[in-house]
Amino acid sequence: MLELYLLRHAKAKCEGEKLPDAERPLSQRGRNQAAAMAPALMRRSAFEGEVVSSPARRARETLEAMAELLPEGTPGPVAHFDEALYTFDGEALRAWLQGRPEGSRRLLVVGHNPALLELARWLSPEAPEALPTGALLHLRLPGESWQALEKHAAEGLASLTPEQASHALFLRRAPAPPDLRKADLAGRLLGQLGHLYRLVRTLEPGVMAGIDPEFLHQYRVNLRRSRAIGEAVLATARQSGSGKAPGLKKRLKVLKARAQATSDLRDLDVFLESLADTPPPLVARSRLALERFLKAHQREQHTALCQQLSQPDYAEQMQAWQAFVDSREFGQALARLSTPKVEAVLAERIAGHDRDLAGLTPDAPDEAFHDLRKAVKRIRYLAELEPKRQRRFLKGLKARQTLLGEFQDLCTRQAWIAAFAAGSPKAPRRRKECDAWCAALEAQKRALRERIMALAPLRESGPAAR
């Protein structure tokens, strides 16, 4: 099997500076693209084989920018520069590829469009219609000889753009929020739901790429915000007795299930990020074993999520949700919403939160604190339906949610550490290290429990207090 990586150079500066085409340097955007793609190419082992690049300055600087961003101690790409790759002709590039000597079965080519895309289309009918600057195509080809390549011979093709690898770059092209300043409450919520739907769908490629964890975080947040608006409609309809929105409860269950399917993966992302910031209290060998353990589960969870997002029923469910939002029945339910009704439901949830907070004890199970965290989230999402009106309340709510989130993170870490230790029956020293770590986390949890139980009731800062 042959592995072929086709990388288009990152964004170069325009030709207005009267430089020869081959001397055009990368723009700042191009450097950002290269930085975003460096970990993606490393993860795909693209630098482990032969690397051949166009000698054009923008291609050379793409590789140089990537090498600068690789983790310390990671060998960077050792590139050869070939004048034949400074071409925009797909047939010329194909002739070059088929003239490669046998030996290396993994080849990274850094070059130019349209040559790269024309070659990819010759090798695979699944090649995309466009190849943006900084984008990568990864093809798996049968056989062991570049000279024997045939049309449409590729057995697999994967593509990745900088906007799928970096959430910061994605934001430049993300759907713009609608201008809802003059809309009434119903119109504003309908506009928000439409925007949230577009965001969720456009975040999916970044989630599936799995390079930047922020895609998954924002995907979860926007699913939950969509659900929160739907729950507000459902709750106000029940409380006021003004009728129901047929089918809404069923749709909300689907959104809830889709968000829950990301929970373990998000927890793993957060835990691994924390390990990078604060080394764990383990010896080096145990630390590496823990990282391998967590990353293996991370890959497993990500693969499972990608499979779910690729299923036809996922797209059907999401489209059904958008169709429901656009339906006349849901529009009528939205029209029955009003600020007093929303605040009545908000007050009810705040009262429930305060009862749960007052019922906490030092010996209460962790789940009681988790339930309180979930209640705060639901309160926040409901208050965000009127962000200007609830600005001060939301500001105070954020600190409370952060505190409860820290407690949740500690519990999650304990669970994964315990699972890691349980998988090391022949390493008693490692189990002892993990037990000591869990005990230290338990002490942190006790301190957080005291801070949480000392929180003031929300009614003192809630809408009813103003």
Descriptive tags:
CHAD domain; about 475 residues; alpha/beta; 6 strands; 6-stranded mixed sheet; 17 helices; Rossmann fold
Write the layout of secondary structure elements.
Layout: E1 2-8, H1 28-43, E2 50-53, H2 57-69, E3 79-81, H3 90-98, E4 106-111, H4 115-123, E5 136-141, E6 156-160, H5 162-165, H6 167-170, H7 185-209, H8 213-240, H9 248-260, H10 263-277, H11 284-310, H12 312-325, H13 328-335, H14 339-358, H15 366-383, H16 391-422, H17 428-453
Parallel strand pairs: 1-4, 2-3, 2-4
Antiparallel strand pairs: 1-5, 5-6
Helix pairs in contact: 1-2, 3-4, 7-8, 8-9, 8-14, 10-11, 14-15, 15-16, 16-17
How would you describe this protein?
The model has no long low-confidence stretch (mean pLDDT 91). Helices cover 60% and strands 7% of the residues. The protein is α/β, with parallel strands linked by helices and 466 residues long. Strands 3-2-4-1-5-6 form a six-stranded mixed sheet, with helices on both faces. It folds into two domains: 2-170, Phosphoglycerate mutase-like (Rossmann fold, 3-Layer(aba) Sandwich); 187-465, CHAD domain. It contains 17 helices and six strands.
**Structure classification:** alpha/beta
Count the domains: 2
Let me know the largest β-sheet. Answer: 6 strands, mixed
The sequence of SSEs as H and E is: EHEHEHEHEEHHHHHHHHHHHHH
CATH class of the largest domain: Mainly Alpha
Radius of gyration: 27 Å
**pLDDT under 50 segments (min length 5)?**
none
Q: Strand order, biggest sheet?
A: 3-2-4-1-5-6
| Quaternary status | single chain
Total strands: the figure is 6
Percent of residues in helices: 55-70%
**How far apart, in Å, are the first and last alpha carbons?**
69 Å
Share of β-strand residues: 5-15%
CATH hierarchy: architecture of the largest domain: Alpha solenoid
Determine the number of helices (DSSP H or I, runs of at least 4 residues).
17
